[in-house]
Design a protein that fits this description.
Radius of gyration: 64 Å
Subunit structure: Microtubule inner protein component of sperm flagellar doublet microtubules. Interacts with the C-terminus of CACNA1E. Interacts with alpha-tubulin.
Shape: elongated
Oligomer: single chain
Structural class: alpha+beta
Pfam family, one: DM10_dom
Subcellular location: Cytoplasm, Cytoskeleton, Flagellum axoneme; Cytoplasm, Cytoskeleton, Microtubule organizing center, Centrosome; Cytoplasm, Cytoskeleton, Spindle pole
Organism: Myotis lucifugus
CATH class of one domain: Mainly Beta
Distance between the termini: 150 Å
Protein name: EF-hand domain-containing protein 1
Length: 639
């Protein structure tokens, strides 16, 4: 076999040469056996295993050659005879599609009906695609019926299209000349024709009925079986027989509510109820005699959501149960039209009726009178710290506060009377040690003013330290403060003024005269301090052991005992608060406390009352069997 190694050379003698290396010249198989059957197969390689050239023809060319093979074999085919032409008016002559439909028409000027349902038949003529709408005649309808739309092609939209039988189906709406028709069903021929044309029909619907037409089909007169209850017999039997109940309506839980009394009348002749008000003199209400007019009272209403609530007249159709005489029981609450009444009594005729009719013979008579509650004690609110307590309390008594009343007699008797004292400031700061203050106590108003005399080169500006004001004692209640009185001012006394502690050092001559003339107001401790001050001023002794002239020997013995106890209990923990502990119980500043209170305070502060010196001091400070003067006792244990 000759082969052409060069693809560009023509396959001619002299241009081809044999391949000397080729030794295989067999031909590939074209048959193959599958499941025992000989099947033709296309060889993949040529003679000697040479590669076959790929077919250069496209699939379209191959298909064309396959189609031309019969033509080349048998020649040109004969054309078929043209079909016979049948015009549409012949092919679809007397073939009509029928649909059942209805449309809704509004009725504006009628009280019996608001809308009307009109049933129609829609015909579709296949021969010319025309349609007509016919309404069957209804007897005594009063409406011109028959042909609603004559036969014509009906417009489908504004673009000039017309309805075709392909647009019609069950369960759809079509609008023709402003009327919307709802297609419900069709006849058998129409269903068979549309299904043969490949149209899937919707399931048939239900034809709507005209409510007014159905109403007219009902019988004109409906027979109602009369009730066995004889109202005329009830009227004649119970005429002028009325049950009278006494009730209250307690509305005190609401704002501005009150407890009011009513009379409930139940008329046996027609089972009606009347509620009358009971007015009292000067009750502040208009004299309306009737709260509710005589009427039948519903007990259980029908739960109708669309029932007009504005209608006052209620018929038997809206009520399941009415109030009867057995619902009015003395001692039980009764709710009428949303208001709960409590029946507490009835008249003798009502008691006799319940005994004869229901067998109830023990109707109680309940006392509903409310006892007057004791008047609420007015309590002042806590003191807020602004202004005097008496002045702030006036805002709680009246709407327009007035100035608190003053003791005019005291002001007239003590006018221009001032007690002056010299005091030093008890302060931990060393620069305050040498400061001196002048206390002025005004007897007319019980006010205190403090003045600091200026000292040159002291670095402290003197002048008014505190203006006229009332100073309350420490640890006194804010709402009922205890103010300093003249008996609290004596030599050696500690005065606490708004957290600053002052020690009285000296007094003027008028204070001494005032204390001598009003010795009953002062404690023995205060009088003793004045006596010591007078002795030091008149004849100061160089030695402390020397007995002062004009002093009672018992007082001298008391002072010596106090000095011994002070040396013995120098570091006792009660020295800082023993004075305040006794002053809490002695609110009137008398200087005396009960014996039980005295030993209770000593036990609380761990004072050694079992010591011999302390027992002797208690004996000397005792005033009778029940009272103890704690001023001298405090001096022995305080700073």
């Amino acid at each position: 076999m000759m082969s052409n190694p060069e693809p560009g050379l023509p396959l001619l003698p002299g241009t081809s040469c044999a391949d000397p290396t080729k030794t295989d010249f067999h031909r590939s198989q074209t048959l193959n056996y599958t499941h025992g059957y000989a099947m033709a197969r296309r060889p993949t390689v040529g003679i000697g295993g040479d590669r076959l050239q790929v077919n250069q023809l496209s699939q379209a060319d191959l298909d064309e050659l396959a189609n031309k093979a019969p033509l080349l074999t048998y020649g040109e085919p004969k054309p078929a005879a043209p079909p016979e032409f049948i015009p549409a008016h012949v092919a679809f002559d007397k073939k009509v599609l029928k649909f059942d439909a209805y449309f809704q028409e509004d009725v504006s000027m009628s009280t019996d009906e608001h809308y009307r349902i009109r049933q129609v038949h829609i015909y579709y003529y296949l021969e010319d695609d025309s349609m007509s709408v016919m309404e069957p005649l209804v007897e005594n309808s009063g409406i011109p019926q028959g042909k609603l739309i004559k036969r014509q092609r009906l417009p489908k939209n504004d673009r000039g299209d017309h309805y075709h039988w392909k647009d019609l189906n069950r369960g759809i709406n079509i609008t023709v000349y402003g009327r919307t028709f709802h297609i419900v069903d069709c006849d058998g021929f129409t269903q068979e024709f549309l299904e043969s044309q490949g149209i899937e029909l919707n399931p048939p619907g239900k034809m709507a009925l005209d409510p007014y037409t159905e109403l007219r089909k009902r019988p004109l007169h409906q027979y109602v079986t009369p009730s066995d209850f004889d109202q005329l017999k009830q009227f004649l039997t119970f005429d002028k027989q009325v049950l009278r109940f006494y009730a209250i309506w307690d509305d005190t839980d609401s704002m501005f509510g009150e407890c009011r009394k009513y009379i409930i009348h139940y008329y046996l002749m027609d089972d009606t109820v009347e509620i009358r008000e009971i007015h009292e003199r000067n009750d502040g209400r208009d004299p309306f005699p009737v709260l509710m007019n005589r009427q039948r009272m519903p007990k259980v209403l029908v739960d109708a959501k669309n029932f007009p609530k504005c209608v006052l007249e209620i018929s038997d159709q809206e009520v399941l149960e009415w109030y009867t005489a057995k619902d009015f029981i003395v001692g039980k609450p009764l709710t009428i039209l949303g208001r709960t009444f409590f029946i507490y009594d009835c008249d003798p005729f009502t008691r006799h009726y319940y005994k004869e009719k229901f067998g109830i013979s023990d109707l109680p008579c309940i006392d509903v009178s409310k006892k007057e509650q004791p008047p609420v004690k007015q309590e002042l609110p806590p003191y807020n710290g602004f202004g005097p307590v008496d002045d702030s309390a006036q805002n709680c008594f009246v709407l327009i506060p007035k100035a608190p009343k003053k003791d005019v007699i005291k002001m007239l008797m003590n006018e221009n009377k001032v007690l002056r004292f010299l005091a030093s400031l008890e302060s931990p700061y060393p620069e305050d040690k040498g400061r001196r203050f002048v206390f002025s106590y005004f007897l007319a108003t019980d006010m205190i003013s403090i003045f600091e005399p200026p000292v040159r080169n002291s670095g402290i500006i003197g002048g008014k330290y505190l203006g006229r004001t009332k100073v309350a004692k420490p640890h006194s209640p804010p709402g009922n403060p205890i103010y300093y009185s003249p008996s609290d001012f004596f030599i050696g006394a500690v005065i606490d003024v708004f957290g600053h502690r002052f020690i009285i050092l000296d007094t003027d001559d008028y204070v001494l005269k005032y204390m001598e003339s009003n010795a009953a107001q002062y404690s023995p401790e205060a009088l003793l301090s004045i006596q010591k001050h007078i002795q030091k001023r008149e004849a100061p002794a160089p030695k402390l052991e020397k007995k002062p002239t004009g002093v009672d020997p018992s007082m001298q013995e008391l002072e010596a005992l106090i000095d011994r106890i002070q040396k013995q209990v120098k570091d006792h923990p009660c020295r800082d608060n023993i004075r305040e502990a006794f002053q809490v119980y002695d609110k009137e500043a008398t200087g005396f406390v009960d014996r039980e209170v005295f030993f209770k305070i000593c036990s609380t502060l761990s004072v050694p009352v079992d010591d011999s010196l302390t027992k002797e001091l208690i004996r000397m400070c005792s005033h009778g069997e029940d009272k103890i003067n704690y001023y001298n006792f405090v001096r022995a244990f305080s700073n």
